[in-house]
Structure formats: structure tokens, C-alpha cells
Design brief:
about 200 residues; six-stranded parallel β-sheet; about 15% strand
Length: about 200
């Protein structure tokens, strides 16, 4: 899957670290990214990761490229109200999209076909164009409404990858547990990695 266009969207659910590691791994694997961050996502990045990336699109782009040490061609950022972005149209749909982490509000709006911002519109495009759309929901406990919304998405072809770390690899740190979840995302995308030890790999 070398050199594919992949959207990574970070929403306001706790767990911004999942999105950050995913971006890093996808860039390392040679893919080109289009990054979307919701308003609540910026707040979580600041609260959990001490990354104040808020500002206009040009400023956010500079901060992202500097943080990941990547050149302009490899990473693009779009503001959540930029419906002129190519990814808002099915004629320019990327190869895959991942929400990491994904809030239950985003799950609900995407499952209802609501496109109130670019993140939701891009997800709507992926579903209608039948392109790979992955969601990493981070919520607990899950209500019946949450479960019904995720079921509706799964029935539409969306892959649901909950932020549920495995422990058979004997994780020693929080980073190990985060890597397990991100590794599962990469597995679904068909991207090789060494983020966790596979069952029977000893």
C-alpha cells in the first residue's frame, strides 16, 4: 500500500495519542496524509499531549509538519470548515480514512449521514464511494445508542476498531498498549508493522 493517500482524523474523544502514533507510523511507511482535527480534538491534544496546535490552517500545517518532521508533499491539513478541500468530493476520495480517536458524537453524526464539518463529510464520501473507513471509538461504558450507531456503521462497511489493548504480549508501558491498538488499525489497512508481538510469535 506504498504511497497511498490516507486521511487521519482526530476528534474530541480521549486518546489523541492514538492519532499521533498512527500519523507517525503511516508517514514512516511512506504514505501521504491528509490530517483533520475537530475543534474538540484540538482541546484534547492540548489537555492530554500539551500540544497547542490551534490557529488558522496555515499555522496548524506548519506545526504538524514540524512535529512530525515531514516535508510539505507528505502531509496536508484542512480546517474542519474547509468544504473546498478535495476530500469533500467523491471525485477525489483518498484510499482510506481513519478516525483515531473517534468520539461518540462523531459516530452518531456519521451514522446518520450528517455532514456538519469536513471530518463528517469526508467520512460520508468514504462510505458512499465504498472506500475503507476505520473508526477507533474511545468511550466507556457504551450505551445502547452508541452500540446501535456503531452497528449501523458496521453494516455500511465501516471497520470498528475499539481502543481495547491486548495483554498477551505482556505490555510494560502505556505506550505498549497504545501501540497494540494502532497496530490493529495498520493490520486492517494492510500495512506491515512491528508495533506488537503477534499471538504465537514467541
Amino acid at each position: 500500500m506504498s504511497g497511498k493517500r490516507i486521511i487521519v482524523a482526530i476528534t474530541g474523544a480521549s486518546g489523541a495519542i492514538y492519532g499521533l502514533l498512527l500519523i507517525r507510523e503511516l508517514l514512516a511507511a511512506g504514505h501521504n496524509l491528509e490530517v483533520l482535527i475537530s475543534r474538540a480534538g484540538f482541546a484534547v491534544l492540548k489537555e492530554e499531549q500539551r500540544l497547542d496546535w490551534s490557529g488558522n490552517a496555515d499555522l496548524v500545517t506548519v506545526r504538524l509538519r514540524r512535529h512530525f518532521n515531514v516535508d510539505a508533499e507528505r502531509l496536508r491539513y484542512y480546517a474542519d470548515d474547509d468544504f473546498h478541500a478535495a476530500i469533500a468530493s467523491g471525485s477525489a476520495a483518498p484510499d482510506a480514512m481513519v478516525f483515531a480517536p473517534c468520539s461518540m458524537g462523531t459516530v452518531a453524526r456519521v451514522s446518520a449521514g450528517i455532514s456538519g464539518n469536513l471530518l463528517e463529510r469526508a467520512a460520508d464520501v468514504m462510505i458512499k464511494e465504498r472506500r475503507p473507513l476505520l473508526m477507533v471509538p474511545r468511550e466507556t461504558p457504551l450505551s445502547v445508542i452508541h452500540l446501535e450507531n456503531m452497528l449501523r456503521l458496521a453494516q455500511a462497511g465501516v471497520r470498528i476498531i475499539p481502543a481495547m489493548p491486548g495483554f498477551y504480549g505482556n505490555p510494560q508501558t502505556v505506550d505498549d498498549m497504545v501501540a497494540f491498538v494502532v497496530g490493529k488499525v495498520l493490520d486492517v489497512l494492510g500495512i506491515e508493522h512491528d508495533l506488537y508481538e503477534r499471538w504465537g510469535g514467541r
